[in-house]
Amino acid sequence: MIVMKFGGSSVANAERIKHVASVIQAYAEKRPVVVLSAMGDTTDHLLEAADLAVKGTVDIAKVEKLHFDTAKELEVDIPAVKELLGELKTLLTGISMLHELTKRTRDYLVSFGERLSVRMMAAYLSKQGTQAKFYDAWDIGMVSDSNYMNAELLDEVWDNIPKALGAYKNGTQKEIPIVTGFIAKDKNGIITTLGRGGSDLSATMIGSAMGAEEIQTWKDVDGILTTDPRIVKEARPVHEVTYEEAQELAMFGSQVLHPRSMIPCRKTGTPVRVKNSYNISSEGSVIVEKHSGPTPRVTAITSVKNVKLIDIQSNNMFGACGFLAHVFNQFLKWNVSVDVIATSEVSISLTVNGKADLTGLIEDLQKGADVTVRSDKAIVTLICDAAHSSSILADAFSALRNESINVQMISQGASKVNISMLVDSDETNKVVQILHTALFK
Ligand code: ASP
Ligand code: MG
C-alpha cells in the first residue's frame, strides 16, 4: 500500500486531472490512497472571496467557473459540486451581511477547495472504469485541535485512520480512496485547516498511520533539486535526503514540502518519495532516516528573501547573564519569531521575517540596548554535513571573496545539517549561483 499526494498545480484543470488520473491508474497495483489539494489557486481565490465578502460583495465566479468548466471538460456530472458551491455562496452571503470573518469561518470557507477537488477526481476515475471513492478528511478520522488556520492533528488520528481505511488495506474494499488534504475537524466537529501547504502533512500522516510502503508526493520537476532551477539552470536532482535535511530545506525556503510534514513519518521511518508526474519512470528523491552511503558534503542550497536583520547591542542594563533572557522575552511578548541567530556576550544579531511588525518590540528592546534594524536582507542556507564545515566554508568563502561578496552574518545550526549566511537581498541569486558552482563541482 502507498500514499500518492498531488498538489494544487497538479490538478489545476481538466487536462492535468486526466494526467493525474493516468498516474494513479499506473500505480493501481500498489493499492494507493490518494491525497489531493484544492484545484490550482482555488485556496487563494477562496481567501480573496472571503475578504471581498467582509466588504459586502459576494463573488465566487472564479471558483465556480473553474469547477464547472472542468466538470464539463471531464464529462462528469457531479451534483455534489453544485451543492457545495451553493453552500459556499450561502456562507459568503452570511459573511457579507455580518461584515465579519473569524478564523473559524475562514477555515470552513477554504475547506471547500479540497472537498471539491476529491469529488471531481473520484468521479472522473470512476467514469474511466477505475473504482474510486472520495473521503472528506473527517470521514477517515482526521481530528485536530481548535487552533484554526494552523491546527495540529491529535494523537488519536494514529488509530482512527487505519480503522477507517482498514477494509481498503486488507483488500475487501476495491475503490481507491481519494482523500482531502489540508483539512480536519476538531473535537466539536468544527472544520479546521492544517496551515497553508498542509496537504503534505495529511499525506504523511495517512501513510505513517497506515504503515504504507512509501508516501509519494508528486510534482512537475524531478524531485528535490540541488537548488531552485529558476536561479541556477544547472540545478540537478538529489537522490536521497534525510528527514532532518528535508525539514531544514522546507524551513529555509525550498518549496518542496510543508515543514511539519516530516513529523509523522519520522516516527515510523516511512520513506517519502518526491516524484515528477511528467517523468514517471524517474526515481525522484527519497527522504529517509539515514543516508544509505556516506553523508554528502553538501546536499542543497536554498534562499529566503525579504528578511530583516536586527542588531542588539547591550548597554549593560541587564548584566551579562540577564541579557539574552531579556531579549528573548521581548520576542515572546510581541510574538515575533526568530529565524537565524548569531551572538556574543553583549550583542546579538538575529533575523526575522521581513513582514513581521516590529514596532512595539523595538521600543521595548531599546530600553536596555542599542538596536538597529536593516531591511532587504536574505538568508542563503547550505544544507550540508556540518561535520565538514571548515572545508565547506573554505570553498564557499573563497568563491564569494573572488566575487567581492560580503557575508554579513553566519550561523551554523545545532541540527548539524545547515549553515546559514545573511547577504543583501539583491545579491541573493548571485550568491546562490556562486555557491552552487563552487560546491557542486
Ligand atoms: N490548498 C491548500 C493550500 O493551497 C493546501 C495545500 O495545497 O497543501 O495551501
Ligand atoms: Mg494549494
Question: Any chance you could write out the topology, listing elements then pairs?
Answer:
Elements lengths: L1 E5 L7 H13 L5 E5 L5 H13 L6 H14 L4 H20 L4 H25 L4 E4 L7 E2 L12 H8 L1 H4 L6 E5 L2 E4 L4 E3 L5 H12 L3 E6 L20 E3 H9 L10 H7 L3 E5 L8 E4 L9 E17 L4 H15 L4 E6 L3 E7 L5 H7 L3 E16 L4 H14 L6 E4 L5 E7 L3 H12 L2
Parallel strand pairs: 1-2, 1-8, 2-5, 3-5, 4-6, 8-10, 9-11
Antiparallel strand pairs: 6-7, 10-11, 12-14, 12-15, 13-14, 15-17, 16-17
The structure holds aspartic acid (ASP) and magnesium ion.
Description:
The chain has 2 domains: 2-219, Carbamate kinase (3-Layer(aba) Sandwich), CATH 3.40.1160; 299-439, VC0802-like. 39% of the residues lie in helices and 23% in strands. It has 14 helices and 17 strands. An 8-stranded mixed sheet has the order 3-5-2-1-8-10-11-9, sandwiched between helices. Strand 6 (183-186) and strand 7 (191-193) form a beta hairpin. Helix 3 runs parallel beside helix 5 (103-127), helix 6 (157-164) crosses helix 8 and helix 13 (389-402) crosses helix 14. The longest helix is centred in the first third of the chain and has 25 residues, at 103-127. The radius of gyration is 24 Å and the shape is globular. It binds aspartic acid and magnesium ion. The site of magnesium ion has 4 residues, from loops.
